[in-house]
């Protein structure tokens, strides 16, 4: 193998070895994601005076964050009862699904 082919092969191996390295998000990107998911979960819950828990991040394999939204049911027949909703937020898709948490 001549020197040029050897160097080219070495460069290809070097570049490919770094191809799998994940790029970490900046603190600002994480803060924006956190604010976006909190806002989306509160809106999807339908609860008034709502607040959200800190999010739990599933791996990027799944790509979801989960939160608990607490607040007051707005329906008159609920007579101001408090409620909790479980919120699933897709980090890439930005899709939100909420489900009532029962006691």
Feature tags:
103 residues, alpha+beta, elongated
Tell me what you see in this structure.
It is a single chain. The protein has one domain (23-100). The protein is 34% helix and 29% strand. The chain has 2 helices and 5 strands. Strands 1, 2, 3, 4 and 5 form a 5-stranded antiparallel sheet that branches. The longest helix is centred in the middle third of the chain and has 19 residues, at 27-45.
Task: Assess the beta-strand content as a share of residues.
Answer: 25-35%
SSE order: HHEEEEE
Shape: elongated
Secondary-structure-based class equals: alpha+beta
Share of helix among residues?
25-40%
Radius of gyration of CA atoms, rounded to a whole number: 22 Å
- The number of domains is 1
Average pLDDT taken over every residue:
83
The major pleated sheet works out as: 5 strands, antiparallel
């Amino acid at each position: 193998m001549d020197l040029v082919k050897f160097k080219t092969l070495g460069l290809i191996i070097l570049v490919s070895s770094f191809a799998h390295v994940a790029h970490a998000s900046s603190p600002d990107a994480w803060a924006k994601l956190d604010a976006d998911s909190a806002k989306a979960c509160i809106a999807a819950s339908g609860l008034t005076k709502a607040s959200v828990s800190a999010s739990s991040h599933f791996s990027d394999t799944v790509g979801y964050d989960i939160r608990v939204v607490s607040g007051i049911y707005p329906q008159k027949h609920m007579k101001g009862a408090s409620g909790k909703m479980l919120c699933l937020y897709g980090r890439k898709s930005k899709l939100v699904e909420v489900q009532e948490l029962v006691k």
